[in-house]
Amino acid sequence: MISSPASFFSRRLLVFVAAFFIFVGIGGNASLPVYAEQALSQEALVDLVKSSIVRIVQHVSGTARIPHIKVDIQRRLVAILPDKWSEVPVDEYLVGSGFIIHPDGYIATNSHVVSEETVRETLASDNALAGLYENALTLSDVDMQSFLKTESENSFSKKVLQFVIDQSVFDLTNEVAVLRPDSLQKSIPDLSKEGFPATVVSVNDHFSEDEKDVALIKIDESGLPALALGGGTLAVGKKAFIFGFPATAELNSNTSLEATFTQGVVSSIKQSLVKNFKIFQTDAKVSEGSSGGPLFNEQGVVVGIVTFQTDEMDRSQGDNFAFALPIDLVQEMAGQAGIFPFEGTYGENFKQGFQYFSQKQCVKAGDAFHRAISKSNPVFVAEDMLYTYFRQCDDLQKTGMALDTRLDELKGLVSMLGKPLLSFIGIILLFFVIFSVALYWVLRQVRREEQEILVLKTRLHTSEDLLKKYEDISEGKEK
After folding, report:
1. Can you tell me the mean pLDDT for 320-348?
2. In the predicted model, what is the mean pLDDT of the chain?
3. Do residues 365 and 402 lie in contact, with contact meaning Cβ atoms separated by under 8 Å?
4. In sequence order, what are the residues at sequence separation of 6 or more whose Cβ sits closer than 8 angstroms to the Cβ of residue 2?
5. How far is 208 from 192, CA to CA, in rounded Å?
6. Fewest beta carbons less than 10 Å away: which of 249, 320, 371, 387?
């Protein structure tokens, strides 16, 4: 039996409405955050990364006994001058940057920031340079040019410096500290004294030879906002971002704990001296003190560690580039120490919250931002750190612009697309009405024809019955 056109139309309408809401539901689920791949705005990058940047101080004290030397540049010889030594008291504070790579207090930085070898080189360099300079004055212009040409590939000056270091007597003690972001102290000595004592987990004292200038330190804290580390490389021309504590950006004693954010592009990718890893070159601004800070991409993933900048002579000619070692070197050192870096709770929840915030889903965004703060170390992640996002969400909710429900999302979609969406829906509805009317007419015709067929069948059955009766009567008469 064929259903009535009215009931058929009702079922079709119900299916259409159900399909529409299923579509809306799928669309809503498809918009859930895939935050690991989302490029963040610069403001969001700052909010994601800044709390993970630390300032590191190495305090070295003691005494050093440095020999005076005589150098013969032409014959590449160096010797100690008998009975000529410099007695040097040592009380130095070396300052650099670092970034958190594990929530349990592990921090990456440069070896030259935390290695005692840096102090040894600094103390020995004056006597080494004095010996080189004294002999250089006796060279002819031709001999000097010949020396300078071979110096870049076979550095005699480095050998002289190492000779002075090896012949010196050092009686030094060093203490490494990570400065507290919430400290009210002003001077570096006071900040260092109040800071978190740090243990050097792994350091490469031969960084000047193999260029693997990376180190790991640890503080006795947990719940830290560790950054995500990424392998691979950044292509030339891609945006690059740096966070650190450059000395040139320190205006006064009140800015010692304020990290600086700079941006640029990857301008080149260089080979290391022995060609066993690549070095990123970027035009993002850095200066002394930026060493050990992260180089990261638009997703907030660390891809390199800032290590040095263009030398002073080239900077005087107008060139100034930053150079960063690949993060693979940090991951390799961490693996050798049995440390496996991973992103902290703060980063994971902030990215999720920012994705919801971008979609104006303020309830979900607020929940994620609250988790980011409440589950992180309060010294590094302050309660008011994400205040801007909460305030903007409050404004959206008060003005009815938040999209916290499916109905809100639908309203937002209509508002965003405006007249084109309404026109599209109108066309769809028009086609639906035309189709429904046509279907109704066809079904009505079919039903009418079925009724006519039924009448014909009834008449045929009646005729057959009459014929049968006639045949029965005829047979009776014959008998």
Report:
1. 94
2. 85
3. no
4. 443, 446, 447, 450
5. 26
6. 387
